[in-house]
């Protein structure tokens, strides 16, 4: 223990020393020009470098040691076990699995043609943990049962029992709902890794180098420190059963622990596919869940109604009388799912009276077992949302049913095959161009307003600095930044939205040639944003082959070139637009990218040689085009009387190129430097908490970009004003140079917002929930609705950070034709 305690003190001491060293050095340098011997001040600073290096080395060593300990496989597995236990204990309470007591689930040995080993004698209730430990020598168990027979309930009990008996370093049981797996799109191991990262985002961190290029989740799977509990094999499409079983056998061969649940018929069909070689899971022990006994059902329903002799319990007499017979209602109530639904529909909650409830005897009028099940599924949602005196619900039963029906249908046709609702994936229900256009509109309006407001402030406090007096004329730097950031955040659609806004703002008051010039500027700037996006978000800086080009990009460059050619014969702009179109097609990335695997907790600043080189390269290439335009302006355009993109004066062109290059470089550096940090395993992964964390990342991006960008771009503008013949101010007097930092805020804020829109899942969710509230009439506060449906009504279940219907049969029923009167 003595070697562990000093590490936090070393870390704090190193940080404090480095902060004091930086502040002292900066203060000394500021004072040095005011003293008689500045060299003495500088000489006095030199010996402090050794202490700074030692403090920095201790700080880095401490962080490296802490990171190494945090990524040890056994330590990560132990932390995962704690997180899984907390998750499923909370879920068991939310599902009311022990209210008034757990339904008794019993089992017998599975048929010999389905399992190679019979898992011991018949068992019941909480014995499953002991059966798995004592009668399943290979830790491979097959759980079979009819629909609603309690397979998931038994798996949750098994999972909690295994974690309770687990010792440090043992495999961690993790439940994976197979309904969200598409065997044709991804193999089982990759899917499990993605689910682990989704539900426990800290496992998305990079694993130590000795495990290859993988995540901590992949490391745990590789080391067999995860015991997969695969629930719902029967919920996969029937035609995929054989392929799914083959992929499971391939990913989890003999020697790997495994628990799998399925209906017997679906599993038997997968063992005997119509084509191909049948797959079989070697060493699987099997159990088959039995229907509930008549006495167990009667006791559970009567106790939930207040106990024998209670007024609400006497209503069950006609149904109890036929339990144990071949009546349709008796066969239907042999399923734990149907018993649970019947209890919700017909038994009172605190504050309800008997006369307000439907009569259970109506179940006797159903002619078949399937009719009883459909009746209970149809009545469940309205019963779950019955008004309660102790708690008011903001969503009446009709609105809740409509929203749940939409969600069920959305799950049935999920783009990624997932029968679940994840708030960060709801953008898949929105037309693809809508988020991009809205991002462009937002950035364009903010760019115009931000520059106009800053110019108003400058005119108020520094009237000697020349600036446009009319707001509609203040579209220079703000529009440029908005156009570039529109392309960065949302590709061509966002960039062109900014362009149309700019044209609408100036069209009534300027000649047609200037409108064409603004259209050309907008197309070029959108392409610039796409190019920056390629440098920033591309997996590597590589040039695409022409066969892989998105031809909308060079087409946009051609359209911008034509507009430049029509307005004053601007040959410089024509050449630049064509070059931008080709560069965007070769290295750019259009659109907002794919949905993230999971939301993030926060962002942190991370310097990397790769990010710095990309930022400088992007700034050099794009800023250099402005310099070339300025140097060749007289040659290509025919004199200084023509309209140019860049100033015709070579010195002014150099400063303009530096300024544009600084904007581009800062954008690339910010995108590569702001790294996301996953949610810690010990933190709740409830969807609303993740949403709040992800939303804060947007503010962090904007704040970081505003500070860093204003310093870099503002300093460049200050230098251009003092030393350049023209610059940000177009030849303004040097007394206005300090306001360059204020002007630098405009592109910095927009760049930070663009980065946040691009990296934050919250931005897409905000668009999706507004769109769905208007188009599909679902609640605007969708996260609150989902949480309420899970926590207070039991309609949904939560697996990690995503929601599913409590049973796939309920989802299928709600997704079917609307049978409401």
Describe this protein's structure.
The model is unreliable at 1-11, 469-474, 633-646 and 725-734 (pLDDT under 50). The protein is elongated, with a radius of gyration of 33 Å. It is α/β, with parallel strands linked by helices and 821 residues long. Strands 1, 2, 3, 4, 5, 6, 7 and 8 form an 8-stranded mixed β-sheet that branches. 57% of the residues lie in helices and 6% in strands.
What are the defining features of this structure?
elongated, alpha/beta, 8-stranded mixed beta sheet, 30 helices, 12 strands, 57% helix, two-stranded antiparallel sheet, 821 residues
Terminal-residue CA separation: 70 Å
Count of discrete alpha- or pi-helical segments spanning 4 or more residues? 30
> What is Rg?
33 Å
Total strands: 12
Q: Uncertain regions: pLDDT < 50 for 5+ in a row? A: 1-11, 469-474, 633-646, 725-734
Determine the strand fraction and express it as a percent band.
Answer: 5-15%
What's the main sheet like?
8 strands, mixed
The averaged pLDDT comes out at 75
The percentage helix is 55-70%
Which overall shape is indicated by the principal axes computed on the Cα atoms?
elongated
User: Could you say which structural class the secondary elements and strand pairing correspond to?
Assistant: alpha/beta
Which helices and strands, and how do they pair?
Layout: H1 6-31, H2 38-45, H3 48-70, H4 73-94, E1 106-109, E2 117-118, E3 123-124, H5 128-135, E4 140-144, H6 151-165, E5 172-177, H7 188-199, H8 216-222, E6 226-231, H9 241-251, E7 258-262, H10 264-271, E8 285-289, H11 294-304, H12 311-314, H13 317-322, H14 328-332, H15 336-346, H16 369-384, H17 397-412, H18 433-461, H19 477-506, H20 512-537, H21 552-566, H22 571-587, E9 602-605, H23 609-631, H24 633-637, H25 650-673, E10 674-677, H26 687-723, H27 740-759, H28 761-775, H29 782-791, E11 796-799, E12 802-805, H30 808-815
Parallel strand pairs: 2-8, 4-7, 4-8, 5-6, 6-7
Antiparallel strand pairs: 1-3, 1-8, 9-10, 11-12
Helix pairs in contact: 1-2, 1-3, 4-6, 9-10, 15-16, 16-17, 17-30, 18-19, 18-27, 19-20, 19-27, 20-21, 20-22, 20-23, 20-25, 21-22, 23-25, 25-26, 25-27, 26-27, 27-28
